[in-house]
TrEMBL record:
The lineage of its organism: Bacteria, Pseudomonadati, Bacteroidota, Sphingobacteriia, Sphingobacteriales. GO terms for cellular component: membrane protein complex; plasma membrane. InterPro entries: AAA+_ATPase, ABC_transporter-like_ATP-bd, ABC_transporter-like_CS, ABC_transpr_LolD-like, MacB-like_ATP-bd, P-loop_NTPase. PANTHER family: ABC TRANSPORTER ABCH.1 (PTHR24220:SF86), IMPORT ATP-BINDING PROTEIN (PTHR24220). It comes from the Bacteria. This is ATP-binding cassette domain-containing protein.
Length: 234
């Protein structure tokens, strides 16, 4: 199987108050197209930073990210945005819905950028899929956390991404809503062959992916197949 994501010798250092802080240190891994993987690790270990670099939202200090064989490092901001819109879905830890747009309009944005036809119809179908067909006219502040999470999921699906990055996709949800979101994530992986890379503190969720990459202090401390016995229960 070809790799959809290849991370080589990746490092990220932030400069603040005249000091440098290395948040990711020489990270290496490949993700196979169509597979599922979880990134786990303590708070502050660099998970969100790593996901952002893999998705081309941010630029590395050293090393390389290749997404679908496109090396992101050398691309301009605009070129990275084009690659993201074409290949990537992203679910943010804090949703990041656009506050001035309704739920429906938030879902429509990636499709419009893509120049798709029937944008409204497709977006309404996606809202239906996440169980929020009747909330399309609501603004993000008029939605609960779990509803915002599901809108952000619908938005991430809308451009039919090849790879979906999800940062704590169930972190803010109650057990029942979390289970629904989880089901949707794995359904998309199975039905559309979308590669799924998720960050989670929930080890049960991590064990449902094929592979668990563990970060600590900005380094990978283990990278192994998730427990088979749990995985086959899916
Ligand atoms: N813009 C920034 N400038 C300086 N330091 C930063 C910046 N962004 C993140 N950091 C630091 O990088 C480290 C890793 O942050 P990151 O958000 O990747 O952690 P995380 O593993 O996702 O944690 P959590 O589980 O709490 O979400 C943290 O110590 C954080 O303070
Ligand atoms: Mg984080």
């Amino acid at each position: 199987m070809a790799s959809i994501l290849k991370v080589s010798n990746l490092s990220k250092t932030y400069q603040s108050a005249g000091r440098s802080l290395t948040v990711l240190d020489d990270i290496n891994f490949d993700i196979e197209e169509g597979s599922t993987a979880a990134i786990v690790g303590p708070s502050g270990s660099g998970k969100t930073t790593l996901l952002g670099l893999c998705a081309g939202l941010d630029r590395a200090s050293a090393g390389e990210v290749a997404l679908n064989s496109i090396v992101l490092n050398t691309l301009s901001e605009d070129q990275r945005a084009t690659v993201r819109n074409r290949y990537v879905g992203f679910i943010f830890q804090n949703f990041q819905l656009l506050p001035t747009l309704t739920a429906l309009e938030n879902v429509m944005v990636p499709l419009e950028l893509h120049g798709e036809k029937n944008v409204k119809q497709r977006s309404l179908e996606l809202l239906d899929k996440v169980g929020l067909a009747d909330r399309g006219h609501h603004y993000p502040t008029q939605l609960s956390g779990g509803e915002q999470q599901r809108i952000s999921l619908a938005r991430a699906f809308s451009n039919s991404p090849r790879i979906l990055f999800a940062d704590e996709p169930t972190g803010n949800l109650d057990a029942e809503t979390g289970a629904k979101v989880e089901k949707l994530l794995f359904e998309l992986n199975r039905d559309a062959g979308t590669t799924l890379v998720l960050v989670t503190h929930d080890l049960e969720l991590a064990a449902k992916t094929q592979r668990v990459i563990r970060l600590k202090g900005g380094k990978i401390i283990s990278d192994e197949a998730a427990s088979k016995s749990i995985h086959t229960q899916l």
